[in-house]
Amino acid sequence: MGRHTLFVYIALTLIWIVLTEEISWRSMAMGMFATIICLHFSGKFLPYEEIKKVNFLRLITFPFFLIGQIYSSGFQVIKIIIKGHKLDIVTVRTKIQNETLRVMLADTITLTPGSIMLDLVDDFVVILWMREKDNKADSETAGEIIKGKLERGLLKAEKIIDDTPRKR
Question: Which pLDDT does position 47 carry in this prediction?
Answer without folding.
Answer: 64
